[in-house]
Design goal:
Length: about 425
């Protein structure tokens, strides 16, 4: 009896040795899609120059990427269930590389519509990777440490978010010339990105993934599909609210990131390249927030920290909208620090105790990312008049996230 009690009380490990190589590889994927998404925010500003687009029109960059999340969410989940995590990753990387290579004919035609198609296919790849990678990382060890693993992996997503604007600003914004329509830099950059992603896919094809068995889950449960399964899943209130919270979370992210460079240029007087460099700092604060947040979760429950950070961002948005110069710009930079833990924490809280419904749930929470497709249009319409006032709109988003973290995170026992 004492021996059994001692084993049961052992602290949960971050992961097991047999999962280490797979965890390293899957964690690296978080970095690559972080690069791709934030590169889209640089493209947004670059296309305003070279294709003579308004802010509202350039928001189509975010629409194409995040709209793909909505379209691909369920198919990616079904593919993952049928063919497994590894093949799901390979599908995502293949679509990612294909979309990148399609930038070549789009640049040759100087067509924003063609770029939209390329971005959509690239976005389908990102959606597939996110749908697969989150439950994949959660399954690589004890479920009691799944929050820590997902936040750790998301820290590398934040690293990618730093590299994205740094690379984009250097290759796309640094040499912007008024009236120029040259898209050569876009073409070359995405050839390189596509080649790197194709190489990663080739390497991952040879990685042997150990059997994923969580000793703290009910392994006797059999995966279900069909209307009854979806009904049972949506009977879980904490899952429904996770989808809602993720929708508003990525809505706020999409708009905030899309017009950060515009804010720096129009309100602070920076050149586009300098504003792009500040975006690197902006993303660096998100990386810092991920590490700080992961540490704080040892002392503060994840849902409580989520609510606190959401409240901080509501205050920051009010300060940004007031157009107070340096104070407002510091508040804008702080958004990403407090935003840092939101995506992974909402994801992990939404997947809690779902058992056989976990993979389905991952698909729907990923589909919530479609919020980032529509919200930038609303912010862009306001930003065409005053970019500072556009930052009042995300207050709505952070309030919904606050409600999830404050109350609706609780696992529901209701059944269909």
């Amino acid at each position: 009896m004492p021996l059994t009690s001692s084993v049961a009380e052992q602290p949960a490990r971050f992961t097991d040795k047999k999962y280490l190589v797979t965890l390293i590889f899957v964690t690296s994927l978080f970095m690559f899609w972080g690069i791709a998404i934030t590169m889209g925010d640089v493209l947004n500003k670059h296309f305003q120059h070279v294709l003579s687009l308004s802010k509202t029109q350039s928001a189509f960059v975010q629409f194409a990427i995040f709209g793909a999340y909505f379209v691909m969410g369920i198919p990616a989940g079904l593919f993952m269930k049928r063919f497994g995590y590894k093949n799901g990753v390979l599908l995502g990387l293949t679509l990612f590389a294909t979309g990148s290579f399609l930038f070549v004919p789009a640049a040759a035609a100087s067509s924003f519509a063609y770029f939209g198609v390329a971005l959509f296919i690239l976005g389908c790849g990102l959606s597939t990777l996110e749908t697969v990678a989150h439950p994949f990382v959660a399954a690589l060890g004890d479920q009691r440490t799944s929050d820590q693993r997902i936040n750790f992996a998301q820290a590398f997503n934040a690293l990618g978010a730093i590299l994205g604007p740094a690379i984009g600003s250097y290759f796309l914004l640094r040499n912007n010339v008024a009236g120029s329509t040259d898209l050569t830099s876009v073409k070359v950059l995405y050839i390189v990105i596509g080649s790197v992603i194709a190489f990663i896919a080739f390497c991952f094809a040879f990685v042997k993934v150990p059997a994923l068995l969580d000793p703290h889950s009910d392994q006797a449960e059999v995966e279900e599909t069909g209307p009854s399964s979806y009904k049972a899943l949506f009977a879980k209130r904490h899952f429904r609210w996770a989808v809602i919270a993720q929708f508003f979370n990525v809505a706020a992210q999409g708009g905030t990131w899309a017009f950060f460079i515009n804010y720096g240029h129009e309100k602070m007087g920076f050149t586009d390249a300098v504003a792009g460099n500040y975006m690197v700092l902006f993303m660096g604060l998100m990386l810092l927030g991920r590490f700080v947040g992961t540490f704080l979760m040892k002392f503060i429950a994840p849902h409580q920290l989520l609510a606190i950070f959401a409240a901080c961002n509501m205050v920051a948005c009010i300060l940004i909208g007031q157009d107070l110069g340096v104070v407002s710009f510091i508040a804008l930079l702080s958004l990403n620090f407090f935003f840092s833990i939101m995506f992974p924490t909402i994801f992990s809280l939404g997947l809690k105790d779902l058992g056989k419904h976990t993979q389905q749930a991952s698909s729907f929470i990923s589909m919530g990312v479609v919020g980032g497709a529509f919200f930038p249009f609303a912010m862009g319409a306001v930003a065409d008049t005053n970019v500072a006032h556009a930052y009042y709109l995300p207050i709505i988003c952070y309030f919904m996230i606050f409600l999830f973290g404050f109350k609706f995170y609780k696992v529901s026992e209701k059944r269909a």
